[in-house]
Design goal:
mainly beta, 15-stranded antiparallel beta sheet, four-stranded mixed beta sheet, 21 strands, about 10% helix
Length: about 525
């Protein structure tokens, strides 16, 4: 019986200080450290090389996998009697599979804020600050648990435990230094009595970050709040964002899996050979060549403190966010479709150039493969050519060049898409007049999605554009409403939320199962 032991430790330290500089400025600083450790051990796990040695021995220490001894009876080998391997024999190929993972964050920051100067519009307020952060990630496995060492005589891209795939160590680190500044500038105050300018305020900020692995970036944000009347405010802002990929997305070691059962269908070969499913590997893991995601956002809106109804305000804001280099993975179906499209396009090109179908080389098993770069195929064999020949003879108008079987499909993290989202946010807040039974506040916030557009750019294929709304969570309407009550030390809250109709495009069921579930109305018909 295998025993799995897991030990986890968390260390978290945080401290802060704050104070004043003169009468107008305050400062605060903080430090933070968080470390997570995890150790996994499993015993007994089977070492493949030692098991092979035990199977190959011919003395009393040899391993008998059958549970019986055998003897020759007549001209046949028959089972003789039950047999239990000695513990020493089983122990000879048993070992501890181990793994150690550690992640830590160390950060510190300093912030100053206060009045920069006073002028006719009011106080110009400023904030200055800096931050430092160090991230470390390590996922380590001892020799033979992760990969076989070079001097072991075993394949170094594999490991020696039967029940665990090979996984090289993952090590990554990053330091980030950042500085930022913010300004709030009241251009016109309520006391200036300028027609249609009750107040006018500008805000501006910028943040500069220096990454040890992504270089430097500076992103701004500007905004304006204008009250033409005391009860009406118009506002707008523009901002840019930057997000580096996580250490895990960058450095997680490649690993692979295979589909259960017979395997997967080769969508290029199967229509020709009708060979059915076969076992293929699917690799996934980090990608050290990822780029940072960036964004650009714009908002403008209105705030109305409803005249004549004290405590009631209504807001409406239009927003738009455009993002580039979004992180993601292509699905295996998408990769296979890309592979088929590229192979068929190359075949048509070669046929148009006058090359016979039997002479077209798709580069299977080589670096010059003409299909999707995330598909690896075995070199085409004479048996493969023989399997394609009957189809090509029967379909002279649509012949297919010979390709070897798929060895693996790769699904690394990539900068897969850009997106453009646009919507309107609506809000209502009403602080009711004081009532005999306490104070009541009503809040209601709603969002209407005008546009949800994403463009994926798979390798070597034109962009795939998706403008679907009400699909996979991109519903038009979302909203929440809360009523809060307070009287003395007593509080209460009543809330409700609404999500508009949408369809899960990946969901599927049978008519019989749908009927057996009572025809639930959350399944799209």
């Amino acid at each position: 019986m295998e025993k799995i032991s897991t030990t986890a430790n968390v260390v978290r330290l945080a401290a802060g200080l704050r104070g004043k500089l003169g009468e107008m400025w305050t400062w605060e600083t903080s430090g933070f450290y968080n470390q997570v450790n995890g150790d996994d051990e499993a015993f007994p796990d089977v070492r493949e090389s030692r098991l092979q040695q035990a199977l190959a021995r011919t003395d009393a220490t040899a391993y008998n996998p059958f549970g019986y001894t055998f003897r020759v009876q007549g001209n046949a080998v028959v089972a003789d009697r039950p047999y239990t391997n000695p513990a020493a024999t089983v122990d000879s190929f048993s070992d501890v599979f181990a793994r150690n993972a550690e992640s830590s964050i160390l950060s510190g920051d300093l912030r100053l804020s206060g009045r920069l100067l006073k002028w006719w519009g009011g106080d110009i307020m400023a904030a200055l600050g800096g931050e430092y952060r160090a991230d470390d990630l390590a996922d380590l496995r001892p020799p033979f648990s992760g990969e076989n060492p070079a001097n072991s005589g075993l394949q170094t891209t594999d490991n020696d435990f039967l029940l665990h795939p090979a996984r090289p160590d993952v090590v990554g680190d990053r330091t980030v230094t950042s500085f930022y500044a913010e300004l709030v500038v009241p251009l016109v105050g309520a006391g200036q009595r300028i027609p249609l300018v009750n107040t006018l305020e500008l805000t501006a900020s910028a943040r500069h970050e220096s990454y040890s692995d992504f270089g430097d970036t500076t992103k701004p944000k500007i905004g304006a709040n204008w009250r033409p009347l005391s009860w009406l405010m118009l506002r707008g802002s523009y901002n840019e964002g930057f997000m580096a990929p996580s250490l895990a997305a960058l450095f997680t070691s490649p690993r692979w899996s295979i589909s259960a059962g017979a395997g997967d269908i080769d969508t290029y070969r199967n229509p020709v050979t009708n060979e059915g499913a076969y076992v293929q590997r699917t690799y996934f893991g980090g990608n050290p060549n990822l780029e940072a995601s960036e964004s650009e956002g714009k908002t403008f809106g209105v705030v109305v403190d409803v005249p004549g109804i004290k405590g009631l305000s209504v807001t409406a804001d239009h927003w738009r966010i455009e993002r580039t280099n979004l992180l993601g993975q292509r699905g295996t179906a998408q990769i296979r479709a890309s592979d088929v499209a590229l192979l068929q396009a190359y075949t048509r090109e070669q046929l148009a150039a006058g090359r016979p179908i039997a002479a077209i080389d798709l580069g299977s098993g080589t670096a010059d493969y003409k299909g999707d770069p995330d598909v690896v195929r075995y070199a085409a064999t004479p048996e493969d050519a023989a399997a394609f020949a009957p189809y090509n003879a029967a379909n002279p108008g649509n012949p297919q060049a010979v390709a070897g079987k798929i060895f693996s499909v790769n699904q690394p993290f990539i900068n897969i898409a850009t997106s453009d989202h646009e919507g309107v946010d609506l809000g209502l807040r009403y602080v009711l007049p004081k009532l005999p039974f306490g104070n009541v506040v009503l809040n209601s916030e709603w969002s209407y999605l005008v546009k949800s557009r994403s463009v994926q750019r798979p390798s070597n294929l034109p962009a795939i554009e998706n403008n679907d709304l009400n699909v996979n969570g991109a519903t038009r309407w979302r909203g929440t409403t809360n009523v809060a009550w307070r009287k003395g030390a007593w509080t209460g809250n009543l809330g409700a939320y609404y999500i508009g109709p949408w369809m899960d495009s990946g969901a599927a069921t049978t008519a019989a199962l749908y009927e057996s579930l009572g025809q639930p109305d959350y399944i799209a018909k």
